[in-house]
Amino acid sequence: MQNKGLIKLFAILFGLVSIYQLSFTFFANKVEDSAKEYAKANVPDNNGRALAKYERKYLDSVANKEIVNLGFAKYSYNDIKKSQMNLGLDLKGGINAILQVSVKDILVGLSNNSKNPVFLEALAKADEAQKNSQSDYLDLFFNQFESISKGGIKLSDPTIFGTKALRDKIDFNKTNEQVKSTLQEEINTSINTAFEVLRSRIDKFGVVQPNIQRIGTSGRIQVELPGAKDIERVQNLLQSTAELQFWEVYTNAEVQNFFFAANAKVAELLKDDSTTEQVKDSAKADNIDDLLGESADSTKVESQKNLFTYLFPNIAQSQQQMSSLVAQARVQDTAKVNSLLKNKEVRALLPNNLKYVKFLWDYKAQPSADGTAEIIGLYAIKSNRADKAPIDGDVIADAKQDYDQLSKPVVSMLMNGEGTKKWAKMTSENVGKFVAVVLDDYVYTAPVVNGAITGGSTQISGGSMTVNEAQDIATVLKAGKLPAPARIIEAEVVGPSLGQESINASMWSFALAILLVLGWMVVYYGKSGLYANIALVVNILFIFGWLAAFGAVLTLPGIAGIILTIGMSVDANVIIFERIKEALNEGKGLGTSVEEGFSFKGALSAIIDANITTFLTGVILYVFGTGPIKGFAYTLMLGIGTSLFTAIFITRLFIDGAAARGTNLTFNTNLSKNWFKNIAVEFLQKRKIAYIVSGFFITVGLVSILTVGLKQGVDFKGGRSYVVRFDQTMKSNEVAATLKDAFGTAPEVKTYGSDNQLKITTVYKIDEEGTEVDEVVQNTLYNGLKPYLGNTSYEDFKPGFEKAGNGIMSYMKVDPTIADDIKQAALWAVLGSLIIVFLYILLRFRKMAYSIGAVVAVFHDVLVVLGVFSLLYKFMPFDMEIGQSFIAAILTVVGYSLNDTVVIFDRIREFTEGKNSVTASLVNKALCSTLGRTINTSLTTLLVMLAIFFFGGDSIKGFMFALIIGVVVGTYSSLFVATPIMFDVSKKEDKK
C-alpha cells in the first residue's frame, strides 16, 4: 500500500480532532449533571417544574465561569455547550413542530378582506381541493379563480387585489398571471416575516442549538427545540400572533431617581430574606457550593445585595447623556430584575408621572466589555391603564432596508392612512424625545425623534446600525402585516424523563452490540479480527467526532444507523479477509494474498458496489425524510464513508505491519478454521422450491394486507398519539372503554413497553383548526383518565418537565392534510430508491438480468416485511405501525439486501468474465465461495440488531423488528431469489 505515512498522519489528526470535539460534550455533561444534582438537593418532592427552574438557575450562574483551561485557550460553559453533541428529541426530550402559515389568510389580508363573491368562492373551492392535493395553495386558488371567473373579472379588480395598499404593485391593467407573480412575492415576504419572528422568539427561549427552517414554498416552517421542557409555553410562543407596537418611552434621566429609591428598598427586602436563605442553603452539599463559587449561587443572598447588584442603571449627568436606554443587566439576571421591579413595595415608589411604566428588554444581547458575560439593555415604556399602544403594527404598509445620504444603513417605513395620522401626532408630540418599536414585548429600536413626520413615510436610523440589523428591523416592522398566527399541523413532544431513559437504553444496547461484534471477530478471525476491531473502534470515534464537530443531531434511529454501519464495516473486513484466505489456501504467500485481498479485482470492487447501493438509499431517505429519519440517513451515509476508510486503510496498516514483522496471520482460529470449507451446494437446482416458498409467504402476506390491512401510524393517517405513564398496572381495553365516553368514540389504546405505560391514539377533533384545540383535546384526555391518575394535577399531567409519577411522557400530532404529504413523500422515497438502484446495477454490471434480479429480490423482501407486519401487528407487545420510521426501515432493508446481492453478483461477474454465457455451475460456485461471508455478515448484523431490539428504547422496537426481519429475508433472497432470477433472465437473453 502506498502513502502509508500520509494515511497514518490523517488518521492520527482526524482521531485527535474527534477526541477534541467530543471533549466539549464530556465537560458540558459534567456541568449539566452537577446542575441536576443541585436541583435535586433543592427540590425534595421531585417536582418537574421546580427541578427545571433550579437547573436553569445553576447553569445561568456558571454560564461564564471557566470550565476548561487548555493553557492556550479557556472555555466557559457557554462556550462548550455550543460545541457539545446535539441530541435529538428522543434522547433529550423537547418538541419538534411543523407550523403552517395560512396562505389563505394572507390572500384575504392582501385583498383587504374582499367580499367579492368570485374571490370568496375561489377560496372555498381551493380549501376543498387542498385536502387531496399537494399543490401550493396559491396555485389551487388561481386555478379555481380562472375557472369560476371565466375572464369576467380580473384579480387586479379594485374589489380584490387592486387596493390602495397594493396600488404601487398591482394596477388594473395587469393580467392574472402578473398579479399571481406579485401575490407570490407578497406571500413569500409574509412567510419570511413569520420565519424571522419565530426565529427571534426561539432565540429568546434559551434552548441549546435550536433548529428552524422553511419547507419549500408551502408556507410551512419546521421548528425543533431539543431540551425544551416547558412545552405549553413553547406552543403558545410559536402560535401567538406577532404583536408589533409603537410606544413613547421615558429617558434615563426621568427614571434614574426611581432606580435609586428602588435600590434602597430592594436592599431592605433582600436583607430580610438573607438569613433564612443562608440557613436553608447551608445544608446543601459543599461540592455544589465549591463549583458555583461563593457569589455564584443566586439563592445565597448576602445582606449587601441590592437592585444594582443585578441592574446597572444608565445615569444621565448631562443633556448629552440622555438616552432611551435606562439600564443594562447580565442576561442570566433578567428574571431576577423582572421579579424585583414587579415587587409591590418597589412599584409603590413610582411617582405619579411614572405610574404606568413598564420595563422591556432589548431584543438582543451584546458581549460585555471584558467578554465574560452577555449584557442586555432595558427600556422604560410609557404605558397606560389599559396597556394599549398608541400605534399598532397593522398600520405598516411597507418597510425595507435602505441607505441615507451618507450611505449608512437605515430602515424606510411607509404607513397607511390611519397610521400616517397617528404617526404624525406621535412624532410631533415627541420631538427631541424617543419612541420605541416593540415586537412581542421586546424593544427592537428606540430612536430619537428629530422632527414631526406628517407624510406617512419615515426612516429609522442608528449610529451603529448594520445592514443586517436594518434588514431585521424592516422584517419586524412588516410583521404587523402578518394576518394570522402560524398553526402547528405536526408536532412531536418527548418528555425529558423518556429522553433520559432512551439514552440509558441506547447506551446499554450500543455497548452490548459492540462487545458482541468485537468478540465474534476475534473468535472467527483471531489476530486479524483484533486488527479489524481496532479499525472498528477508530471508525466509531470518527463518526461521533464528525457529528460533534459539524453540529449534526444524534437521534435514536441515528444510533441505529451507526450500529448498522458497524455491521457494514465488519462486512468490508469480512469480504477482504475471505479473499485473503482464498489466496492463502491456493498456496500464495502472505504479502501476495494481502495485496490481492485489498485490490480492486479482489474485495474492493464488491465493497465499493455494496456500499454505494446502501449510500444511495441513505440519500433517498435524507431527501424525503424528516426529523429522526434524516438523522438515521445522515449517520448511515457518514458511517459508510468512515467505515470504508477504516476497513480499507486502517486495517491494512495493521496487517501490513504484522506481515512485515513476520507474524503468522492465518485469518482464522482453531475453532473456525474449518467453517464454510469445501461447500458444494447446488443452489440453482433448488430455485423452484425457493420460488414456491417465497410465493407462499408473499401470497399469505398480500391476503392479510388486503383483508386485515396494516396499522398506519399517526404520521400517515393523521391524529394525536399520547404515551401516558401511570403509577399502577393498566388494562388497555378498560382504559379504551373509559375514554370512549370522553372522546365520543373509543381511541386506540395499547400497552407501550412496561405494563404501566399506554399509547393512546385518537382522531378526536383532528379536523378542527385553532390554537386552542390541542389544549381542549389534552384536557379531555386528562378528565377521561382521572379515575387512574390519583392526585395528579392537570399541570403535572401535561407533557414536559421531569415526571415523578403519572403523566404524558411523549405526544405526537399530525393534521390529515400533512399526513397525505408525508405518505406521498414516503412512496416516492421507496420508488425513487428502487429506480436509482436499478440504474446503478445496470451501469455497473452492463446486463439487464442483474438489475432485474436485484429489483425483484428487493420487491420480494419489502412484500414479506409488509406481510409480517400485517399478520403480527395485533399480537406483538410493541408498536408495529406503518409510518416514517417504518419506511426508513424498509429502505434500509433495501440497502442491506442489495449489499448482499451485489457482493454475490460481483463474484459471479468475476467467474464468468470472458465467457459467453452464465452457467449453473459457475453461479453455484460463486454462491458457495461467498457463503461464508454472507452468513458471517448476516450473523454479526443480526447480533447487533437483536441487542438494540431487546435493550434499546420502546420507541424503536418496531423499527428494529422490521430491520431484523429484513436482514433474515434479505440474506435468503440474495441466495434464493436474486441470483436464480438473474440466472433465468440471462438464459432467456442468451436464447434471444
From TrEMBL:
One of its GO terms (molecular function) is protein-transporting ATPase activity. Part of the Sec protein translocase complex. Interacts with the SecYEG preprotein conducting channel. SecDF uses the proton motive force (PMF) to complete protein translocation after the ATP-dependent function of SecA. Keywords: Cell membrane, Membrane, Protein transport, Translocation, Transmembrane, Transmembrane helix, Transport. NCBIfam families: 2A0604s01, PRK13024.1-5, secD, transloc_SecF. Belongs to the SecD/SecF family. SecF subfamily. Belongs to the SecD/SecF family. SecD subfamily. GO terms for cellular component: plasma membrane. InterPro entries: SecD, SecD/SecF_arch_bac, SecD/SecF_bac, SecD/SecF_CS, SecD_1st, SecD_SecF_C, SecD_SecF_C_bact, SecDF_P1_head. It is a multi-pass membrane protein. Forms a complex with SecF. Part of the essential Sec protein translocation apparatus which comprises SecA, SecYEG and auxiliary proteins SecDF. Other proteins may also be involved. Forms a complex with SecD. Part of the essential Sec protein translocation apparatus which comprises SecA, SecYEG and auxiliary proteins SecDF. Other proteins may also be involved. Residues 192-249 form the Protein translocase subunit SecDF P1 domain. Its main location: membrane. This is Multifunctional fusion protein. Residues 388-484 form the SecDF P1 head subdomain domain.
